[in-house]
Design brief:
The chain is an alpha/beta fold. The chain folds into two domains: about 5-165 and about 200-230 and about 285-295, NAD(P)-binding Rossmann-like Domain (Rossmann fold), CATH 3.40.50; about 175-195 and about 230-280 and about 300-320, UDP-galactose 4-epimerase, domain 1. About 40% of the residues lie in helices and about 15% in strands. It has 13 helices and eleven strands. It has helices at about 15-25, 40-45, 60-70, 90-100, 135-150, 175-185, 205-215, 235-245, 255-265, 270-275, 280, 290-295, 305-320, and strands spanning about 5-10, 30-35, 50-55, 75, 105-110, 155-160, 165, 190, 200-205, 225, 250-255. The strands form three sheets. The chain has a seven-stranded parallel β-sheet, sandwiched between helices. Strands 7-9 form a two-stranded parallel sheet. Strands 8-11 form a two-stranded parallel sheet. The longest helix is centred in the C-terminal third of the chain and has 19 residues, at about 305-320. It is globular, with a radius of gyration of 19 Å. This is Nucleoside-diphosphate-sugar epimerase. One of its GO terms (molecular function) is aldehyde dehydrogenase (NAD+) activity. It holds the Pfam family Epimerase. InterPro entries: Epimerase_deHydtase (IPR001509), NAD(P)-bd_dom_sf (IPR036291), NAD(P)-dependent_oxidoreduct (IPR051783).
């Protein structure tokens, strides 16, 4: 491993970005957070003297170059609305052009399991075919191919770190976050089923230290790697544990694929969830032995502890709201 220069987080304000920023700060490293909205960046990072806050407009090439200037490593976490996945590849192209122009040496894309399509074997290693049968998977595949094809050109090394679904304290974009909020408030949790299938989640605070390590592990680049969760759990088990912490019996309303189709008539985001519902009914479990062989054992928070922490955060938020 080596000492490295400044890291920039593109699309930093989300949960994964905050986890990576925390890990960088904890190891004494300065970092840059880059996003469209200064307000959300100030809210997330304004208290950290190690954070440099920069806004960008990815549609303006000069803005991309300015945001990347002076960075050694860029970490790409830019999200798009669930019903606008066709914007992923062009956004990546513009960002890559800016990184090259600014002389950035390394790029890590935080990726998903979408490009694999359906799991053909379990657990899924990095050798699994990337043959997505969904539109979102195809857009994510095009995005990561742009990143992988850029490796070794113009002084840039690239890496895709593939994550499963995630959860954690206050992680609003986790689809199980509503379970913790509902358990804390004593209301009925709305869930997307089926909820009795083993599923894998990574605990968000566990992600940051892994990414921080990868920014100073040159031999990791030129491929994709997996970061797996702490084994598998069902959504029903998560709900049971969360409601037990509240001293309540679980109250659940489960929307399966037919219900998602109906809800999609009125809600474009729900409509977009239909094609990805296979990930709820057909497990896709990642194998991260390649990553562990590279950087050593990875600290993984147990589901019991992660659920306790996520519930506690929801309980605190419910008290503030009350």
């Amino acid at each position: 491993m080596e000492n490295v220069g400044k890291v920039g987080l593109f699309g930093a304000a989300g949960a994964i970005g905050q986890s990576i920023a925390h890990a960088l700060g904890a190891t004494g490293r300065d970092y840059r957070v880059i996003g469209r909205s200064r307000g959300s960046l100030e809210a997330a990072f304004g208290q950290d003297p190690r954070a440099e806050i920069v806004t960008w407009n990815p549609d303006d090439p000069a803005s991309v170059v300015a945001a990347a200037q002076g960075l050694q490593t860029a970490i790409y976490l830019v999200g798009v609305p669930y019903n606008q996945f066709e914007t992923h590849p062009p956004l990546m192209e513009k960002t890559l052009a800016g990184l090259r122009a600014a002389g950035v040496e390394r790029l890590i894309l935080i990726g998903t399991v979408y490009p694999y399509g359906r799991a053909r074997s379990q657990p899924v290693t990095e050798n699994h075919p990337r043959e997505p049968h969904t539109f979102k998977g195809q857009m994510r595949l095009a995005q990561e191919n742009l990143v992988l094809d850029a490796h070794g050109h113009h002084g840039l090394s690239t890496l895709v770190l593939r994550l499963p679904d995630f959860y954690g304290p206050g992680v609003e974009r986790s689809f199980v976050n509503g379970v913790f909020e509902s358990a804390a408030r004593g209301t009925r949790a709305q869930m997307v089923g089926p909820i009795d299938v083993p599923h894998e989640f990574v605990f968000v605070p566990d992600v940051g230290p892994v990414v921080e390590t990868l920014t100073r592990t040159p031999e990791a680049y030129g491929r994709w790697l997996h970061l797996a969760g702490a084994g598998t759990i069902t959504q029903r088990e998560i709900a049971a544990k969360a409601y037990a912490l509240a001293g309540r019996e679980p109250r659940l309303m489960v929307a399966g694929k037919p219900m998602l189709r109906v809800l999609g008539l009125f809600n474009p985001i729900m409509r977009e969830m239909v094609e990805m519902n296979y990930l709820m009914s057909e497990p896709l479990i990642l194998d991260d032995s390649a990553l562990q062989a590279l950087i050593g054992p990875i600290r993984k928070t147990s589901y019991d502890e992660g659920i306790r922490l996520a519930f506690a955060a929801a309980q605190d938020a419910a008290k503030v709201a009350a």
